[in-house]
Amino acid sequence: MNGKLSLILFLCVSPSVWASSHLATTESGSDDVSGLNIEDLVNVQVTSVSKKAQALSDAPAAIFVISNDDIKRSGVTSVPEALRMAPGVEVARINSNKWAISARGSNGSFANKLLVLIDGRSVYTPAFSGVYWDSQDVLMDDVERIEVIRGPGATLWGANAVNGVINIITKNSEHTQGGLLTAGGGTTETGFGSLRYGKKLGDDTYARAYVKGLQRDEFKTPTGLDAGDAWNKQQGGFRLDSRLTDQDQLTVLGDIYRGRINQTQLVPTLAMPYYDPVAETQKISGWNVTSKLQHTFSSTSAYTLQFYYDRYSRSEYIQSETRDTLDVDFQHNFKLNERQNFIWGLDYRYSHDDFGTSTWVSVTPSSRGVQLFSGFLQDEIMLIDETLWFTLGSKFEHNDYTGFEGQPTAKLMWTPAASHKLWASVSRAVRTPSRAESNVSIHQLTVPASPQTVNMPVKVTINGNQNLQSEALIAYELGYRFTFNSKASLDVTAFYNDYSKLRGANHNVTPQLQGTYPNYYLQQNLIIDNHYSGNTYGFEMAAIWQMMDWWRWDANYSFLETNYSDGGNILGTSPKHKASVRAGFIPMQDVNLDFWLRYVGDATALNTKASVAYAIPHYLTLDMRLAWKPHESLELSVAGQNLLDDYHLEYIEENFVIPTEIARGVYGKVAWQF
Amino acid sequence: MLIKNGLFYTVFYLAIILLSSRAVFADATQEYTVKAAMALNLARFTDWPDSALKADDSVINLCVLGDNVVQDAFLQMDQKKVGHRTLSVIYLSRLRNVDDCQVLYISGLEKNIIIQLLSEIKHKPILTIGEERTVVDYDGMVNLDTLSGKINIQINLDATKQAGLTISARVLKIATLVKSK
């Protein structure tokens, strides 16, 4: 504990000490150069290190950007782990290969209110309204930035962006020329490697291709047994960017992957002890291709036409699924007049699935194609010159489950000075029902025989509901962004979310006697319905301080209060407090040293086996990375993850997956550019 | 526990050692402070045709397209003297009233927008200054190119001539001359 304490003390106290001794000298750096003549100016040494610290987003929304540099210096090896850097986002690793990720509450491995896009392609699956995080990967070195938008981004992004949108944006291939070879390995990251090569193909045409592979070790159960959740994945892909004419830009990109995921699931049975642990290897695979044409009519008018096709397959003991998705999207933005900017769009999506049937899970019909039509329009009106803007918009969609859905939003943005931005918004958003919620039947668990159950086991089955309605949200947000001086910025957002028609299950169905002598059991059906409601409120603060050219702080804190009408604690609640502090040093020209301390407060997770939720205790953890560039094209690094404990628990999945604790990990990495 | 403490003390001391032994970086000035000062100087060394300035006008409009970092830096240049005129810094968030500008500083725009914007104002007497090669490639006039921590001035003379602007030889002497694509 002493080690832990002294480190925290060091991280907390040192900035003020260093600041007092160094701030004076750094501030004098911003001396008055306007008096210099032009011959002197071309010889001034300039720095742009604090640009990110100061730049304030122009959007009236709670945006946090994770840059390529943040990804590299934090030492994260996957998108889910990178998202831990964002305020208001809860990332809970369920085991080695599964994550539960949400924004502003309602977390779960089937968290359904966060939309995720990779280069414009939605990876939110309509199968269960969520994201299969084990299937989503990109070459982390090629990510330009990850935009994390908390709150309903519904107007521009469509349904299901209820609590947030995550935009993963990879670099234009013009900026990934040449080769990059990386290789590494360690304890939890058993081994990983990648090769990317980019080339100029024509006058204004660039392309790149990559392959990558990873192998991750298994974790442990709370009782210290091997969790059997090791996995491996291989992926390859390409991107082409071509300027066809001065007005037309074409981008084509695609990926293909396969993975083998070990898992142990607790599968319910009707005989003692009423479940069987099944150890197996789940197979995942998929491919996708996206093409995007951007035409620029003028400096104030442009359209994009995007098409993508995405296929994935997953196969495990209790279920299997193959899904094909086709999407065509058109967006046009233009200046209506000197005061108004208008943007509108249309989208068509067709998603076709094919489910396997097992003793535990059946989807009826087993194959179905679902269409989604949507459109949106948004008008941004400047009320006072360069100071006050009003934005009004709405998305309209028609889906095969609930029909028409409207999602309007109104926003006001006030910029009293360049370094102060204040905004407020009111929006409505919906989360449309998933295929599972409509058509599934799952043998969820077996309640052991007891005198209360007339000495018969109870087979609990969750049944989909074709009349299920969309979950709805009215969200109120207020945000303030400002830069203190040229070195620091602060972003504060407060929100109040009012949910209605939240998903629950109707327990008031009379149990039926089933089976044959002597194996009688009670069949208890639960029908999915919309009977819950609730509200959440909270605030998020994110600060960046470039204390010195070689020392930078990134800190954020999120507070969340959850009130669901579940008569206590059934649905599970996300942590009330969450904090992250990163300190990045450049102690020598070619060395980077980074510390990342995270705190996640007490939480609970939905427990289908009992009437109260699982308790997930709070945890504090630390990541570290040390990198050295002995040569311009070579980087050697060592990273430590979750260093403060041998193992800690972050989440317990709703059903089947055995509780698993996250292990400390250390890995080394070599990156060579050629 | 002993091992754990050992690990953290190692980290702790490693950090201390690295930080205390660090080489001191050369004092550097913020990039945009210098770029704003350069824009002011470029305005001072540019002659506009009479048609570009109203006869009684005593103001040079420097329009800035860019985020708050850029805006803050250019604020320092507001009301500075440019010959017998005064520089007026104007922020444009959404490409409004570009024709009223004598100087246009372009930062943070997407490449496709830059290309269209420059083609729309090609022959107009607006001194266009940007910070990426695209600007001078597509008929923009000046590119402030950051190379190894210093700002190099690239000038597209054809573009200035077509717009009727004259940039002083004093600036051309220290600039790199480039041509449109």
User: What coarse outline of chain B follows from CA principal-axis ratios?
Assistant: elongated
Helix-strand pattern of chain B: HEHEEHEEEHEHEEHEHE
Q: Tally the beta strands of chain A.
A: 38
Structural class of chain B: alpha/beta
Question: What is the β-strand count of chain B?
Answer: 11
- How many domain modules of chain B? 1
**Protein chain pair with the most extensive contact, residues per chain:** A-B, 64 and 66 residues
The largest sheet of chain A, given as strand count, sense and whether it forms a barrel, is: 22 strands, antiparallel, barrel
Key terms:
heterodimer; A: 674 residues; mainly beta; Maltoporin, Chain A; 5-stranded mixed sheet; 8% helix; globular; B: 181 residues; alpha/beta; Rossmann fold; 8-stranded mixed sheet; two-stranded antiparallel ribbon; 38% helix
Structure commentary:
The complex is a heterodimer of chains A (674) and B (181). Chain A has 674 residues and is mainly beta. Chain A has one domain (63-363, 383-673): TonB-dependent receptor, beta-barrel domain (Maltoporin, Chain A), CATH 2.40.170.20. Chain A is 8% helix and 60% strand. Chain A has a 22-stranded antiparallel β-barrel. Chain A has a 5-stranded mixed sheet with strand order 2-7-8-5-6. The relative contact order of chain A is 0.14. Chain B is an alpha/beta fold and 181 residues long. Chain B has helices at 2-20, 31-44, 68-75, 111-120, 133-137, 157-162, 169-174, and strands at residues 29-30, 46-47, 59-65, 81-82, 85-91, 103-106, 127-130, 142-147, 150-156, 166-167, 176-178. In chain B, 40% of the residues are buried. In chain B, α5 (133-137) links the parallel β7 and β8. Chain B is elongated. In chain B, α2 packs across α3 (68-75). Classes of the chains: A mainly beta (674), B alpha/beta (181).
